[in-house]
Amino acid sequence: MWRVTAEVDLAKSAGSGAQDVRAETNMAARKFYAQRNTYLTGFCLFLSLVLTRVFYILLDLIHAQEEYAKLKNEAVKSPKADQTKQIEELQKKLAATEAKVKDYDILKKQAEQNAKEYDRLATEFNSKTGNVSDKRKD
After folding, report:
1. N or C: which end of the chain has fewer CB within 10 A?
2. Which residues does the chain have with pLDDT short of 70?
3. What superkingdom does the record give (predicted)?
């Protein structure tokens, strides 16, 4: 484009006073074609950059969809395994809790028996010594 423009300027400045109409039209056509080719080349370069970027974006999308499908399949298959693991863990926790409840009940019974035995011995001691306990004064 620059070359054609320079040739047109050179022809105008160096030429004779009266130029041929065909030569002038030919120069204008050459300038138009040069400009058109420059714009087409620029647009093709821009389009190639855009298409390359779109291609890589589509590749990323395809890879993401494949990973999503894999994870979805694993999620469908694995809940059974996860559920069995969770069931086993919950059963272990339940057994531990039942053991704690059993230990608590045993401890509660022992405390009740100790309290009853203490009351019995205190009553027996008071009856033998003759001490009468008045709870309001104590």
Report:
1. C
2. 11-12, 14-21, 78-79, 81, 132-138
3. Eukaryota
Cα separation, 1 vs 31, whole angstroms = 7
Q: Model's pTM, two decimal places?
A: 0.41
What is the helix (H) or strand (E) element at residue 16, kind and residue range? Answer: none
**Residue 89: phi, psi to the nearest 5?**
-65, -45
Domain ranges of the chain: 2-129
* The two three-digit tokens of residue 17, written as one number: 């006073």
Could you give the CA distance from residue 46 to residue 40 in angstroms, rounded to a whole number?
A: 10
Q: Measuring CA to CA, which residue among 29, 33, 27 is closest to residue 8?
A: 27
* Token pair recorded at residue 77: 């298959």
